Amino acid sequence: MSRAHSRAMTPKWSRSRTGQTVALIVSLLAGSAAWAQKIDVQFDSSADFSKYKTFAIRNGTLNSRNPALNSELTKKQIEADIRRDLTARELTEAADGRPDLNVVYHFGSQIKSELEAFPAGWRGWGTRWARVPYAEGTLVIDLRDTSVHSLVWRGIASEEKIDAAKIEGKLDDMVKKALAKYPPKK
After folding, report:
1. Average pLDDT score over residue span 58-82
2. What pLDDT score was predicted for residue 32?
3. Average pLDDT for residues 35-56, to the nearest whole number?
4. Above 50 in pLDDT, residue 144?
5. Long-range contacts of 124-130 (CB under 8 A, 24+ apart)
């Protein structure tokens, strides 16, 4: 059977649905690629990061309406991840006395929505718009110099997921990727 004959035997509605399906899959994949983790780092360029040897975790805050993200367990997980990643960078947690750096973190999540375009209409030449809800979680880690009481480094990690509870599974990665940029390269 020739290709032209095969195409002629396929109903028109089937060919247009196939085109719509392919276009829908491509747009969904493109949209999901935009939902990647974002990392931003800010630092005081005049600070001497080689002098910092000790740290202490202080006053972490959580701000989320989702109970899975606004719990004592989430705080413990974030603090354990911060300890692990800072000690991997040859900093020591100060047991007593005054540390070189105070670590303060803030984690929050909120529900957002994005307007997505989908092919519709005859042969997929039209456009249908739909609101797609998603959750955004943001973790801010501040390192403050205790001798001058000022912020010297800030790491901001943002994660977008369709389900807010899935952000909890990405907390380790958010801390790791933010602190991977400490100490900064000037």
Report:
1. 86
2. 41
3. 89
4. yes
5. 124/16, 124/19, 124/20, 124/23
CA distances to 50, 152, 154, 177 from 46, rounded to whole Å, are 12, 9, 14, 23
Average pLDDT over residues 34-63: 87
74: burial class by Cβ within 10 Å (0-12, 13-18, 19+)? buried
Percent of the chain with pLDDT over 90: 39
Kindly list the domain boundaries of the chain, sorted by start residue.
Answer: 3-179
Query: Which pLDDT belongs to residue 34?
Result: 42
Written out in words, the top-level CATH class of the domain with range 3-179 is alpha beta
The mean pLDDT of the chain is: 78
CA atoms within 13 A on the CB side of 11: 3
Token code pair at residue 83: 């300890």
